[in-house]
Structures are given as structure tokens and as C-alpha cells.
Amino acid sequence: MSTICNTRGLGVTMARASACRPPSVASTFLRLTIADLRQALLARWFVLYTAAFVTLGLGISYVSAMAAGSTGLDGFGRTSAGLINLVILIVPLMALTAGASAIAPQRERGSLAYLLVQPVSRGEVLGARFVGLSLAMVASIALGFGLSGLILSLKGGAADPGSLVRLASLAVVLAMAMVAPGIAISVMTRRSSVASGIAVFVWLALVFGSDLGLMAAAGAMHLRAQELFYAGLASPLQVFKMWALCGTDATLDILGPAGLYATDTFGARLPWLFSGAMAAWIVLPLAAAWVIFTRRSQ
Amino acid sequence: MIRFDRVTKRFGRFTAVDDVSLEVGRGECLALWGANGAGKSTMIRCMLGLHRFKGVISVDGLDVRRQGRRARRLIGYVPQELGFSDDATVKQSIDFFAGLKGVAVPRLDECLGAVGLAGQGHKRLRELSGGMKQRLALCLALLGDPPVLVLDEVTASLDAAGREELVMLLSRLAHSGRTMLFASHRQEEVMRLATTVAVLERGRVDRRVAPAELFGPAAPANEEVVLRLMVDQPTSQRALQILRDRGHEAYLNGVGVLVAVASPRRAAPFEILAHADIPVKDFEFVEPASPCMTAARSAAAASNMRGER
Amino acid sequence: MCGVSTVIATVVLFGVAAGSTAACDGHGESCGCEDPDVTLRCMIADASPGDTILVPPGAYHGPIVIDKPLTLIGVDRPTLRGGSGDILEINAANVTISGFLLAATGDSLERENCAVRVNAGSAVIEDNILYDVLFGIDLKNAAGSVIARNYIGGKDLDIARRGDGIRLYRSDAATIEGNVLEDGRDAILWYSTGVVVRENTSRRCRYGFHLMFSGDVTIEGNDLQENSVGVYIMYSKGLTIRENLLAKNRGPSGYGLGLKESDDYTISRNTMTANRVGVYVDGSPFTVEGPADFTGNLLACNDVGMTMLPSVKGNRVHGNSFIDNAEQVAVAGRGELIDNDFDVEKRGNYWSDYGGYDADGDGIGEAEFESRKLFENLTDHRPELRLFRYGPVHEAIEFVARAVPAVRPEPKFVDWYPMTTPPPSGAAVASLSARGPTVRTGLALTAVAALIAGLAFASSPIASSLRRAASGARRLAFRAGGES
Fold first, then answer.
1. I want to staple C234 with a disulfide (CB 3.0 to 4.6 A). Which of C73, C128, C208, C260 is the partner?
2. In terms of CA atoms, which chain B residue is nearest residue A24?
3. Is residue A2 part of a domain?
4. Does residue B148 contact residue B174 with C-beta atoms inside 8 Å?
5. What is the distance between the alpha carbons of residues A151 and A7, in angstroms, rounded to a whole number?
6. Partner C contacted by A94 (CB < 8 A)
7. Quick one: B135 and B282 in the same domain?
């Protein structure tokens, strides 16, 4: 596959590029992805957030398992509600931070330029960042939910494995929908500190700002239930929550009139609607990031 | 081999590269020479596809914009500083970049030995000194034996000893049929590496000359050169002593140690001091007839005479 | 063909139904026995009041009218087919219909196409299978009738175009027992008293059982799930509703049990789970006469355990378990429920979100249970804000309400004697909470798989941080050693 030849001048043998086939796009992508995954997993933020996620998840499942133990009843009760809340709080913060640290810090250090000088395309670099970071998020979520599930099964909690896996998968989707805008932020900002600042701001805005703003708007402008529902679709956190709540029987009426409207209007198509919204949160920021990243000087 | 055809690069109102056309022939070693901001690095970054620009740059006939990936496969690049300082080991980085370039993973000790890093494969990048990192960068650039080597101020952030080591490595590479394009503002490097110098002024190529034309003829083989080595004050006396013990003509001067050596052996003082664990902060060449050298010599002669008496 | 079947019919009827049974034999010509439909009508016409007709297997077509007290027993489940109209009409008292398959009525709501129409008292309709029917069994002025062990499957129509599986109109002292109703509109009682509704099953109907202006009705042991509403009581009184399972009733109204302007009821030991609203109380008790008791019920995992309209007063809610309802008790609109008792004789209810403790071991918590959540208060007033339930803002609002007493709402109600352990509940719970070892094993396996996956991913950084920690520790130890 490759010939060994003398590197001129230094008198040593090295494999010669021109003599072997260029690496396939897939193998280059895989290499970049693995490197990015490795780097993400080594990052301090990852370890800290994962520790927080796992600890809180353990706490929630322990408490809810103890409470459910007395009656054996847990419908959409403490476990799921607690885990949903936990995911909504931590996963976006983690994913946005991850995304924000994807490009900007390396650009600051110059290692991004060094990477781009190699025979790789910028699209590959960006795509690999996204996939690598998403995989890191998968690892973190798998750890958190895995330990929670273990506690629940040991303590005789009432959650069933299917719903736990489902919740974890949705958490991964949410993570991807937050990594993507994080990467967009990272591509658009020159300085890494600014990028992480914006990421935290976006997180705050999504976690508290959007819900509070909508609630205020609902009060002030007398938004109808369906308007509230459509407005809610704009927030990936809200979409995650609704998706997680709509469960296997595809009803959202637990969310009051707005959920009822959604159930009546979309019924079995609700999951498609939600996946569409999430896909938009993944694709649009990535597309924007791609346009900027491939056009801009590094 | 490398063609710049009417290349212009603007940053806002500032024109960093102004309608430059330039050609580097196969086997030629072209130095981009000029003050800071003259456009040296910008030209290199354009060529590597890091900047968007007007005009055309091609490497071996490949347009760096439209066929950037293939063009970059022909280029080994050494930056001013290797940006990453993470937990990866030397071996892991070599494997990674060899993979990206699509070359078989080389025999580690040979390729590290070639740049004087033999046995360092297990070290993590953050444990390497600046000079070692730059030599690793050179090693990475040489993966796959690319026909073109591009160097961007590669010695700028090194101390004198590191600089000398790197330049010695590079000078062996420069005269081996490889095309080389490098930016530098050190006369010493240009003299030793370049076959041609492109003088840049405010984003334009002012002229192309031979190094000797620009700096005067290179020192003849046996000519004496004088180095001024900057060392820490407390170690200067010891440095002087060691150099003298090894038979060099050396003097202490307020700003450093002055050593006179024959031109081909001018690296020797660095090696001696490195061996003695005395870091050299900086160095410069001094005219043998310069006032400070003459003064030092006459002072020494006077004290010698006193000693003989 | 026809001749053969006539012979068989004759033989079977003659062989089995000797004695007082009417048969076709003596009147062969006048009955025109070539056609089974004609034969059946002929048998009915020729029978004397009080006769039993054993109807041989086969397919017959409605409408069939019975105008004298007869017992019709289907042998090997003969089919009575309706086509575009009704199937069976009973115009005389004391008629029994048993063992038939009644298939396919018309679908005209205007003509109320019906499988079994009863216009006289003391009818017994039992062990029949009715399917693809608009109305199933329709009793009008049929006191003392029994509807038992029938399966009644409605038409595959939009809910607005369906008919009632069972309808009683001014039919007192009827018994409805052991029937299974699916895909119909309601099982409804109009102006009927003394009716017993026992151990029926209902799925995917509008209202499992619907009472209008009825009285002295006992509803017990029924299993009513996946309907719009389990039991909806309107303008009725004298109700005993006990030990029913009302689950997953999540239609447009979505109540397990709804009470509208009704009086004198005892609701006990029922299980209401996974409904949109476990119990909905609107204007009941209406005149405040007789008891209005909710006791020993299990309300679990509903969106809202119990919803009351703000004007409601006089209910006594005690000895119930409220477990993990998204909202335990809601007021539909502004107001409190202070005119209802949530504890009786120093015994309240069990609340899964009660935070107090039982110091003296009498099963009663030492602190009262107050429902004063700000977010619930908001959503009771503006239900569309429930969209934000389970989000961080929900938690944040409750946190603020706890921390800042100024914004804390007045309690909706107070249970002064909350129980600290749930009282024993109806047998129905066992089936709901059955989480077998398979599920737990599955959960454990899934969890372990997830853990392994996560660890596999994270193993290299974990190893490297361990290495880092170890080398740091070594350095520290070395330094400490060097200093000492």
C-alpha cells in the first residue's frame, strides 16, 4: 500500500504520501471524529458536568424508588419528571459548552489552522466536531441514565426499561440540538471566552427566558392555547419535554389545553413534528456554521 | 513548483498582499524577507488555504482553492508554534497526522531520530520544550516526504540553542532537491537556507535577489565569526570559563559572552554550553572588527601582558 | 337446500324442545318453512305466551318482532342480522333473549337503529353477542329487566355518529351485569331508579356509564378504561359507587368519575388511575342533602387527582390515597375548596407529596397538609399555562413561592390530619402495580448495558485522569519526603 523511501536530506526512511492512495473521506472523518471525541472526554467541563449529571440522576432515582416502594405506583411520577427536569437543566448547558469549545479555543491557540493545513476539508473538520461531541454527550448520558436505571432496578422502582431508554435517546437528540448551535456560536466568535459566555447566555435564555417570556406573553397578550403550543415548538427544551411526555400513547393532554390542542391536531404525527423541530435545531445552526467556517479566513 | 499569480489579500482597508506574482522553482529555497507586516505570513497562509484571496496560487499545478486538499498533500508545513499542548503523546500525534495524510505510520524511532527526538515518543506534548516541539513539528511536516516544505517564522519563539538546532536540521533539508518556501526576518537563517530571497515591502515583492546580494557575501569558510551569547548573569562567569577551557577565544562583555570561532564551527559554543546546562537566552553575530570586540581583545591583551610580567 | 334445512330445523326443534315448546311441525304449510326467516317468524307467531323457542343455528334477518312473553334461546349461537334497520323488537313483558349473535344494525342516528329494542318490562337479555351495532340494547319503560353477560361492540364510526351500547329509559329496578361494551357511545340510564350496574367492562366508548336524572343506583366492580369518561353522573341522586376501576379515561373530558349537580352519593374504594382527571366534581352535592362522601379511593397518576369547581361545597374527602397525580387537587378557576372537608373525625387522606412525619405513631402526620403551590394556582386559573409543567420554570416558580411568602398563594384546602401511610386500596391496584421480575431484570440489564457503553467511551479519559492524579500524588509525596 505504501512504499518506504528515503526522506531526502535527513537520511531516514519514511512512508511517502505520493506513493500511496489518499485516505478515503470516511477514514479521515473517522480519525477526526475519534480525536474530537477524545479531546471532549478529556476536557474538564465534561468530567464536571458528567459527575453532576450522574450524581443528581442517582439522587432522583433513589428518592423516587424509595417513594414508589410503598405503593408500587409511579405513573408519570417522580422518576420521569425528575429526570426530565434534570436533562433540561444540565444537558443543554453541557452540549452548548461543548459546542462553544469546538472551534474558538483551537483557533486562538493556532492548532485549528495547523489542522486545516493538513489534507482535510473544512466540512470534514466541522462535521467531525459535531459527531465527536455528540458521541461524548452519548457517553455522558449513558453513564447518567445507566446508573439511575441500576438504582431503580435494585430498589424496585416502577420505571420500565423501555421508557428509560426512550428518555435517554431523547436526551441525546436534545444534546445534538444543542451541540449544533454551540458550534455555530464557536465558529462565529473569535475568542473562546466570548464563545463560552454566549453559550451560557443562550442556555439561560432557553432554560428560563423562553418559558418565562412565553408565560408573560400568554398573560399579557392572551395567547390562545395553540399559539402557545407553536411558540413552544421554537424551544428545543420545550420540544424535548413535550416529546418525552407524549410517551407511547401519543397524548399530550397532561400539558393542559395546549397539549390537548397538539394531541387533537397532530395525534400520531406528533413525534414527526417534534423530530422536525429538533432536526431544524441541528441542521440550521450546522448549516450556518458551515457557511461561515468554510468562507472565513482562519 | 509554487506559483503566486496576481495574489491580493485585504483585511478590511489594509492590503496585506498587493498583487503579488511570484514563482518558486523546483528545488529552490525561497525566503520571504521583510519587516513585520510586510505580508510574509499572509502569503503563506493564503497558499495554505487559510485565507481567502484574489488571484491564483498553485502548487505543482494544483489550485490551492479548488484542489486544496490535493495541493496540501504536497506540502509539509511548520508553523511558528505548534498550537496544541494537550495530553496526546508524541507518538499519538505522529499516528494521527500520518493518518490524515494517508501515509503508513512510520517507524517511530527513525523519524524521531531524524529530528533529534529519539526516545521521546512516549512524552506528552505539554512536557516538550519549545525547541523539541518545533522539531516535532518538522517531523510531522516531513511525514510522507512532501516535495514542498513551508516554514513560517519557525524559529521566532525559540531560544538561541533551539534555534541553532532547528536551523541545522533545516539546512540539511534545504539542499536536498526539496522546494522550500519560508518566511523569516533573521539574516542568519536566510543566509544559511535560502537560494533566493524575495524582498517584501508593504505587501509587494520589491525584488528577488541572491542572499549574498542582500547581505553581502557569506563568510568564507575559514573566516572568523564572533558570537555574542546572552546568558544569565550568574552563569556568565562559568560559561566563560568552560568556553575558554575548551580552547575558544572568549571574553566577558557587559551584555554577554563574546566568542570568536571559525565560521564552520559556529554551532560549537552552543553545544558546549548546552552540555554544561547553561541556557543561552539569545545570540547575535558581531563584526570581528566591531568596537566591543576590539576593546575586549585589547583589554585581554593588556591583562595578559600584565600576567606575563 | 331449503328442504334440507327445514328438515334439520324440524328435527332439532322437535328433539330438544318437546313439551310446551312451539315448533313448526303442525303448521308446515302455513309457515312456509322453505326460508329460515319465515320459519322463525312463524315459530314466534305460533308460540303460546310463556313458550320457549330453541332457535337452531343459522342466519336469520331482522327486523324480528316479539309481542308475547317468550323465551328465545339460540342453539349454537344463531345469527340475527339487521342490515340497514333494527334487529329485534320486544313489545311484551317477560321476554328472554339468550345465546344469539346479533350483527350489523343500520347506522341511522335519526331512526336510532338498534339491535335489541325493548318496550316492555321484565325482559332478560343475556349471553348474546352484539357487534357492529349502532344502538345495542335499548330499554324503554322496561322495569325489572336484566341485561347480563352480553358483548356489545359498536360501529367503527366517529364518536359523534355512534349510538349507545346500552340505554335505559324510565326502566326502574333493572340490572346491568357482566356486560362488555366496546367502541360505543354511552351506556346510559335516563330517569331510572333502583338500577344495579355491576362488573361490566367498557373500552373506547364515550362515557363508560352515564346517569341522567336517575336515582338509587349502585355502580360496583366495573372496569371502565380508555373511554372519554369512566362514569359520568348528571342530575342524579342516591348513588353508591364502589370498587370500580376507572383508568386511562382521557377523552376530551377525560374524567375517571364525573359528578354534575348530583346528590346523596358515597364513592368508596374505587381506583382512579392515569385519567386526565380522577374525579371531577361540578355542583355536587347540589342541594346538600344526604352524604357526599369520597372515601377509601385510590387516585394515582392522574393528570389531576380531583378537580372541583370553585362553588362546590359540602363534600367529605377522607381516607383516600392521592398518589403522584401531576396535580393532586385542582380548582377549576379561581377560588378555594374550604367548604369541603378533607378530613373527617380526625382522619384525612394520604398525600404522596406530604412532607410531614408521624411522631406518635398513630398514622396521622403531625403537620397539616396544605395545597398552596403557586404554579398550580396559576394553571388552575389559566389552564393553558400547564404547557410549562415539568419545565425548569415550574420548579423555579415553586421555589420562589416557598422562599418568598409574599407571593405564596392561599391554600386551596387544608387536610389537618394527613395520613402517613396509604390506606389499603381496592383489589384493582394489584394488576396496575404488577411489576414482575422480568421488568426489573430488563431494567437492570438495560442499565448495565448503558453503563458499559458509557464507560467504554469514557474509559480512556478516566484512565488518563487517574494517571494524572497518581503522578500528582507521587510528586506531592516526593516533595513531602524531600522536605522532611
1. C260
2. B102
3. no
4. no
5. 59
6. no
7. no
At B266 the three-state DSSP class reads: coil
A126 close to A293: Cβ distance less than 8 angstroms: yes
Chain C contact present for A258, CB below 8 A: yes
How many domains, chain A?
Answer: 1
The answer to whether residue A195 sits within a structural domain is yes
Name the phi and psi angles at C440, rounded to 5: -65, -40
Q: Please report residues of A whose CB lies closer than 8 A to that of B86.
A: 39, 42
Buried b (16+ CB within 10 A) or exposed e, A202-228: bbeebbeebbbebbeebeeeebebbbb
Residue A16 lies in a domain: no
Which chains does B contact via 3+ CB–CB distances below 8 A? A
CB contact under 8 A, B111 and A14: yes
Question: What's the rounded Cα separation, in Å, for the pair B207 and B101?
Answer: 35
A-chain residues near C455 (CB < 8 A) = 143
A70 touching B, CB under 8 A?
no
For residue A14, tell me if it sits in a domain. no
Residues B200 and B295 in one domain: no
Q: What is the pLDDT of residue C52?
A: 94
How far apart CA B276 and CA B244 sit, in angstroms, is 13
Q: Do C443 and A256 touch (CB under 8 A)?
A: no
Chain-chain contact of A13 with B107 (C-beta, under 8 angstroms):
yes
Q: What is the percent of chain C where pLDDT is above 70?
A: 84
Query: How many other CB atoms sit within 10 Å of the CB of residue A287?
Result: 12
Please write the tens of the pLDDT for every residue from B103-133.
877 788 888 888 888 888 888 888 888 888 8
For chain A, residues with pLDDT lower than 70 are 1-22, 66-78, 156-160, 248-250, 298
Domain final position from B215, B246, B268: B215
- The H or E element that residue C108 is part of is none
How many residue pairs bridge chain A and chain C with CB atoms within 8 Å of each other?
A: 196
ipTM of the complex: 0.80
* Closest C-alpha to C294, from C251, C342, C339, C262: C342
- Closest listed residue to residue A114, CA positions, set B21, B154, B102, B112: B154
Range of the domain at B277: 224-308
Residue-wise pLDDT for A254-270, tens only, equals 788 888 888 888 888 88
Domain end, chosen from B215, B238, B272, is at: B215
Would the CB atoms of B84 and A109 count as touching at under 8 Å? yes
C44-C45-C49-C50 Cα dihedral, nearest 10 degrees: -20
Q: What residue numbers bound the domain in which A256 lies?
A: 24-295
Interchain proximity A113–B45, CB inside 8 Å = yes
Domain count, chain B: 2
Q: Are residues B272 and B190 in the same domain?
A: no
